[in-house]
Design a protein that fits this description.
This protein has 265 residues and is α/β, with parallel strands linked by helices. The protein has a single domain (14-215, 228-249), classed as Rossmann fold (3-Layer(aba) Sandwich), CATH 3.40.50.1360. The protein is built from eight helices and ten strands. The protein has helices at 21-41, 57-70, 96-103, 124-140, 177-183, 202-206, 221-229, 260-263, and strands spanning 14-17, 46-50, 77-81, 83-86, 115-116, 146-149, 171-174, 196-199, 210-215, 247-251. The strands form two sheets. A seven-stranded parallel sheet has the order 1-10-9-6-2-3-5, with helices on one face. Helix 7 links the parallel strand 9 (210-215) and strand 10. It is globular, with a radius of gyration of 17 Å. The structure holds 2-amino-2-deoxy-6-O-phosphono-alpha-D-glucopyranose (GLP). 2-amino-2-deoxy-6-O-phosphono-alpha-D-glucopyranose binds at residues 51-55, 82-83, 150-152, 158-159, 179. Residues 51-55, 82-83, 150-152, 158-159, 179 line the site of 2-amino-2-deoxy-6-O-phosphono-alpha-D-glucopyranose.
């Protein structure tokens, strides 16, 4: 773990607070780039778990810069996205498939056959089998080397909404009303937001060797406080990360503002 990590007595997860999201994102990208670089030198693949949403955008931007300016190759990288709305067309502007290609994958040299994104186009009766295969594929590659996470205001990681269990694998689930309402602007109204999604499970995520959760801005402060200082509970699935031995929360001061070290100095 990085030696700059401050461990406060009431915090149950290692947490780094940067002056702003640019610096925090550069730190995360640098760590991921060095894992990829090390594996490339040893001719090994790197398995990356990717999040969508605004939070990791600058991490992706910086990784693209590593590729363009510093020659970092993603040819040995295998990617697994966390989640996708269901039902959702791959080419739909609202799909996470579209989002991750637009903001990251189309700008690096990852091989198309190494990209995995939950399929929102599947018929319902094929989804369970597909989800099981998704987890098996990750496991067969030796598990995720690095998982990047954002956090939803419902406490979700991926789309593991309140009620998710530590034993849950990848699956189809119902979205929480907070999540639907947060997505409504992007979809042009609440009635356009899908009510279901396929998400990598908490169990799948916790099997990653290294996890970075990034969160920026005051709107995340309340859930970040619960995830870091609260008890481990299905109500806040990010709190399950307290069970993982190489998870780092990377925050800006606004997202960290409700932590006891600031709220109750
Ligand atoms: C969505 C995604 C999550 C993401 C969350 C936060 O619900 N399923 O994986 O972490 O949004 O999004 P943002 O980073 O835009 O705040």
């Amino acid at each position: 773990m990085n030696d700059k990590v401050l461990v406060h007595p009431v915090e149950k997860v290692a947490t780094l607070i940067y002056d702003n999201k640019v610096e925090g994102s550069m730190f995360v990208a640098q760590n991921i780039a060095s894992v990829i670089q090390r594996n490339n030198e040893e001719n090994k693949h790197t398995v990356l778990g990717l999040a969508t949403g605004n939070s990791p955008l600058l991490v992706y931007k910086e990784l693209i810069r590593y590729h363009r300016e510093e020659g970092l190759s993603f040819k040995n990288v295998v990617t697994f996205n966390l989640d996708e709305y269901y039902p959702m067309g791959k080419k739909d502007d609202h799909s996470y498939n579209h989002f991750i290609f637009e903001n990251f994958l189309s700008q690096i040299d990852v091989r198309p056959e190494n990209v995995h994104i939950p399929d929102g186009e599947l018929p319902l009766n094929e989804v369970d089998r597909y989800c099981k295969d998704y987890d098996d594929k990750i496991e067969s590659l030796g598990g995720l080397d690095v998982q990047i996470l954002g956090i939803g205001r419902s406490g979700h990681i991926g789309f593991n909404e309140p009620g998710s269990k530590i034993t849950d694998g990848t699956r189809l689930l119902e979205l929480d009303s907070v999540t639907i309402s947060d997505a409504s602007e992007g979809f042009g109204g609440i009635s356009n937001v899908p009510t279901k999604a396929i998400t990598m499970g908490v169990k799948t995520i916790l099997q990653a060797k290294k996890i970075f959760l990034v969160a920026w801005g005051t709107e995340k402060a309340e859930v970040i406080q619960k995830a870091i200082e609260g008890s481990i509970s299905s109500e806040v699935s990010a709190s399950f990360l307290q069970n993982h031995d190489d998870t780092l929360f990377v925050l800006d001061p606004a997202a960290a503002s409700r932590l006891a070290r600031f709220a109750k100095p």
